[in-house]
C-alpha cells in the first residue's frame, strides 16, 4: 500500500521530534507499537475539538465521536470519512483490523466491531498517534 505522503524512517523521526511529539510516537506510528493501556494522554480527555494524525496533521476524528470504552486507550465510534485505511492484521495470533492514516500510513491502532450505535465500531487508538486541536475560534457556536 502506498500513501500520498512518503518519508524515510529518519525523516519521520526528525519530523516528530521537531513537532514535540511523545518519544513513543515514532515507534507507535512507524513500527506499529502499542502504548501501555491507561497511560495515553488522551485516554481521559473530553475537550471539544478534533484529533489529527501526529505525523501529517490529517484530521481523523471529531471529539464528539469519542467515548469511554474502558479499555485503556482513546476510543472513537466514527472516523472522518476517507481519513483512515484498514489493513487485516494477523500478528499476535489474532485477526484484527489495523487502522492507518490514509495520507501517510501512520499506524493509529485497531478497529473492533463492538462499539456503540449507530456505527457499532470501536476505533481503539494510541494517544501517541493523535494530536488534539481545539475548536478554531470561528467554529465556536
Ligand atoms: Zn498521517
UniProtKB/TrEMBL annotation:
Keywords assigned: Metal-binding, Oxidoreductase, Zinc
Essential cofactor(s): Zn(2+)
Domain of life: Bacteria
Enzyme class at the top of the EC tree: oxidoreductase
Record's GO cellular component terms: cytoplasm
SUPFAM superfamilies: Mss4-like
PANTHER family in UniProt: METHIONINE SULFOXIDE REDUCTASE (PTHR10173), METHIONINE-R-SULFOXIDE REDUCTASE B1 (PTHR10173:SF52)
Family indicated by similarity: Belongs to the MsrB Met sulfoxide reductase family.
Protein name: peptide-methionine (R)-S-oxide reductase
Organism: Comamonas kerstersii
